[in-house]
Specification:
Elements lengths: L8 H13 L11 H14 L3 H5 L34 H11 L2 H13 L5 H4 L1 H4 L6 H10 L5 H29 L4 E6 L9 H7 L4 E2 L4 E2 L6 E6 L5 E8 L5 H14 L5 E8 L3 E3 L7 H7 L8 H11 L6 E6 L8 H13 L3 E8 L9 H10 L2 E5 L1 H13 L1
Parallel strand pairs: 5-6, 5-8, 8-9, 9-10
Antiparallel strand pairs: 1-4, 2-3, 6-7
Helix pairs in contact: 2-4, 5-8, 8-9, 9-11, 9-12, 9-16, 11-16, 13-14, 14-15
Length: about 400
């Protein structure tokens, strides 16, 4: 009699739960060789989580000692295991790229730099030569570039350039789409099929509709010509808060400014601030160089930045001032409010964006946001594409 094959699904389900729960569930299921490697890779990273210790879960498991931010405690907290070891960040990175799909690798490296501050992902030249560029690593580079020697800084710059190039490619498409309405359609006697005006033709011939035949007879066909709209020059002034919490917005502000740079009818300014103001407009055309110059951290003097923007404005009714900040003013909240009020009253459009990135999920001083909104400023969050569309609507309106 032939043996009945066993259903592999329950066993596989146990393996999945074992991978989710980690070493404490090791007695429930044995893992295969490749899954043990995956388990060791995740343990190397997530085993340093301090919450595990607070819940009484022992750290370490099947891994060796880590470098680059390993805060998992002293060796007394670790115990042996049969799994493979990942002794360094280089080994760990090389391992996960073989063991996991690209999306998982991106999540693991993002957690490594954001959650566990494993800085040698971007300060060790051996790692930088292997790592796949990602927005999370770009942020880590900008946070730690002051720690890098010239050789490492050059490798880090290549990583920055790769990520910025991808961001530019995506946003440039959105900007072109937003500004594609810069042409007006006017009636024309030139009968070209591509310029056939369907709506005007239908409206002009409705009187010739024959309900019995259910046909519309065209007596007059209408066409249009495409002429470029005359665009008055607008100023777009981006004021970017350099505090660490605004890092994602700093990156996307630089990329947005580069995409707006050189568009017909738009003059773009990019100004970074903390307790001082730095005009980065001359670097806008090279967002990589610009980002490598940004200095993160420090206090926040929004009022001073708004005064600087007010001095840049030439024609208030043709200006858009975009304050990109969490609105936590560290020097003069009253001065900040006065500055925004003056800009609005003179006719400038003021946007207080508490986030400018692809997630557009702000965390900000809501009380200050309400005060600015009451003055007539737009307060909220936008993706870079939405900001480009806002500018295009103003310019082409």
């Amino acid at each position: 009699m032939n043996a009945v094959p066993q259903d592999p699904e329950p066993a596989r389900a146990l393996e999945r739960w074992r991978m989710i729960l980690g070493a404490p569930a090791s007695h429930y299921s044995e893992l295969g060789a490749e899954d043990r490697q995956r388990d060791a890779a995740m343990q190397w990273l997530y085993g340093r989580d301090e919450e595990l210790a607070q819940r009484g879960v022992r750290k370490g498991g099947a891994l060796g000692g880590g470098r680059g931010g390993d805060r998992s405690g002293d060796s007394a907290d670790r115990h042996g295991g049969a799994g493979d070891s990942f002794l360094t960040t280089v080994d760990w990175l090389e391992g996960i790229t073989k063991l996991f799909p690209k999306e998982t690798v991106e999540r693991l490296t993002r957690d490594a730099v954001d959650r566990y501050q494993i800085h040698d992902l971007v300060t060790d030249p051996r790692v930088l030569e292997r790592v796949e560029p990602s927005p999370a690593l770009l942020k880590a580079v900008l946070r730690t570039k002051h720690l890098m020697d010239p050789k490492v800084l050059e490798l880090a710059r290549k990583l920055v350039a790769a990520v910025v190039e991808e961001l530019m490619r995506r946003l440039a498409t959105e900007v072109r789409h937003a500004f594609s309405g810069t042409r007006l359609r006017r009636p024309s006697q030139v009968r070209l099929a591509r310029n056939f005006d369907v709506k005007r033709t239908l409206r002009g011939n409705l009187g010739h509709y024959q309900p019995e035949e259910r046909k519309l007879y065209l007596e007059h066909a209408h066409f249009f010509t495409r002429t470029r709209r005359r665009v008055d020059s607008w100023q777009v002034i981006l004021l970017v808060d350099q505090s660490g919490s605004m890092l994602s917005s700093v990156i996307h502000s630089a990329v947005t400014a580069a995409c707006l740079w050189g568009l017909p009818g738009v003059r773009t300014h990019l100004v970074a601030f903390d307790t001082s103001v730095v005009d980065l407009t001359q670097d806008v055309a090279d967002p990589v160089d610009l980002l490598m110059k940004v200095q993160l951290g420090g206090g926040t003097d929004i009022a001073q930045a708004i005064r600087y923007a007010a001095d840049l404005v030439e024609n208030p009714r043709r200006s858009i001032v975009v304050l990109i900040s969490d609105l936590y003013e560290g020097v003069s909240p009253a001065g900040m409010v006065r500055g925004v009020k003056a800009l609005v009253e003179q006719g400038s459009r003021v946007l207080a964006l508490c986030a400018l990135d692809e997630e557009a999920a702000p965390a900000y001083d809501r009380e200050m946001g309400q005060r600015l909104a009451d003055l007539g400023a737009y307060v909220g969050a936008m993706t870079p594409g939405e900001l480009a569309a806002f500018v295009a609507e103003a310019v082409n309106g």
